[in-house]
Specification:
Number of strands: 15
Strand order of the largest sheet: 6-7-8-9-10-11-12-13
Helix content: 25-40%
Bound molecules: 3-[(4S)-2,5-dioxoimidazolidin-4-yl]propanoic acid, fe (iii) ion
Order of helices and strands: EEEEEEHHHHEHEHEHEHEHEHHEHHHEHE
Radius of gyration: 21 Å
């Protein structure tokens, strides 16, 4: 087994249940193949590793590779025109109701080949990787018919074949009502959304099921029908809930044992308590809040009070969060929502791993995958502090530089 020794670095271990960085000031890390076999003080390095030629990091900081646990980064086209319309006074909901919004991306995505979808997605993926991201979740939801939902999921899987990154897929057939089903959301759920979920699952394309529970999307009872099937298939459940209004989606999802509720700007304490009771995580998405110029911030204090773990993600999508910087999401989580830099870093490492059901990454510990980010910073708070600056020195994916 070839082993690699990293020396002369600071290490933020970010272990699963820690409330601190788990910092080691003068650390050594050894990995063999793709797993970490030693992490600790340099002075504690076992003699069996002393002969290894080491990589001298000259005091740089090492963190787990970052994990973006909520993205919609496979799609065609963009919505810059709509951005302009919003700034000229139209609201996100008005644009959606007028056939713009998600539906305009659905039209563009349906018209694109799988090759074109992949080619469009890769620059977004590359932007994330350039900031030390090593695992990404990618949702479907811009197809809303059998062919294109399947195509999106296939393209998401393909990303991991052409780039050094791990991909988890989520089926988001319940993202919007497609034009051919206008006014017939229940029929869309029964005739397209659920049968496509079953088919995509049978093809091995689905790692989790998500849904958009919102006035402009689906009501809790409609989403629940999709979740029944997810449960039957044994798939983890997630929900976009209480982003623009309170519909009780997070609480409903808690009843299904969901792994996360995402956005949750309008969630109340009762909803937070039901998330805590179900062992759910919250996924905080400041990019959408910022882009839509929302004013209602998610209930961070209540999430802390009830011990709900908080992940942070880009929500990278063409409409409400055209963002491909996880470092910026961390900065925004701190500045807009008063999360701490420690919470923000945990939100893109150990907490994000938990949301995606990964037990072998998100922390630096023996047995974890050697997915690491090496930064030109001296303290982990710097990762959240700067705006639009990328201090990544090197990224290690599965032990490969
Ligand atoms: N919530 C969001 O913020 C995105 N999807 C969702 O369910 C918006 C997607 C879009 O506008 O294209
Ligand atoms: Fe989203």
């Amino acid at each position: 087994m070839t082993e690699t020794l990293i020396m002369n670095c600071a290490c933020a271990r970010m272990r699963a249940n820690d409330q601190d960085y788990g910092l080691i000031a003068d650390a050594a890390i050894v990995f063999g193949e793709d797993r970490i076999v030693f992490v600790g003080q340099s002075s504690d390095l076992p003699t069996q590793y002393h002969h290894l030629t080491h990589l001298d990091l000259q005091g740089r900081l090492v963190t787990p590779g970052l994990i973006d646990c909520h993205t919609h980064l496979v799609y065609a086209g963009n919505r810059a025109r709509e951005f302009e319309m919003r700034l000229n006074g139209a609201s996100y909901e008005e644009i959606a109701r007028a056939g713009g919004g998600i539906i305009s991306t659905v039209n563009a995505t349906r018209g694109a080949s799988e090759d074109a979808l992949l080619a469009d997605a890769l620059p977004r993926v590359d932007a994330l990787l350039a900031e030390g991201v090593t695992s990404i979740e990618v949702k479907s939801g811009y197809g809303l018919n059998y062919e294109t939902e399947i195509a999106m999921l296939r393209v998401a899987r393909l990303i991991a074949q052409v780039r050094p990154v791990a991909i988890r897929t989520s089926y988001l057939g319940a993202h919007a009502v497609p034009p051919e089903y206008t006014g017939r959301a229940d029929s869309y759920i029964a005739e397209i959304c659920i049968p496509t979920l079953r088919a995509a699952h049978a093809e091995g394309l689905v790692d989790a099921v998500d849904a958009f529970c919102e006035g402009i999307a689906f009501q809790p009872d409609q989403v629940a029908r999709v979740f029944e099937v997810a449960k039957e298939l044994g798939l983890p459940i997630r929900i976009h809930a209480e982003q623009l209004s309170y519909l009780g989606g997070a609480k409903m999802a808690a009843g299904f044992g969901a792994v996360s509720a995402d956005h949750i700007e309008y969630l109340d304490e009762n909803g937070v308590a039901s998330m805590a009771g179900a062992g759910m995580a919250a996924v905080i998405l400041p990019g959408a809040y910022y882009t839509l110029r929302e004013t209602q911030a998610p209930p961070i204090d209540l999430l802390r009070k009830h011990g709900v773990p908080m992940a942070v993600s880009t929500d990278s999508n063409p409409g409400s969060s055209p963002m491909t910087s996880l470092l910026l999401a961390m900065n925004m989580a701190c500045t807009l929502f008063q999360m701490t830099p420690q919470e923000a870093l945990a939100g893109v490492t150990s907490r994000a791993a938990r949301v995606l059901g990964y037990r072998d990454r998100g922390a630096i510990a023996v047995g974890q995958r050697a997915d690491l980010a090496i930064w030109d910073v001296s303290h982990p708070s710097e990762l959240s502090y700067r705006i639009g600056f990328n201090p990544l020195h090197k990224r290690i994916f599965g032990g490969q530089l």
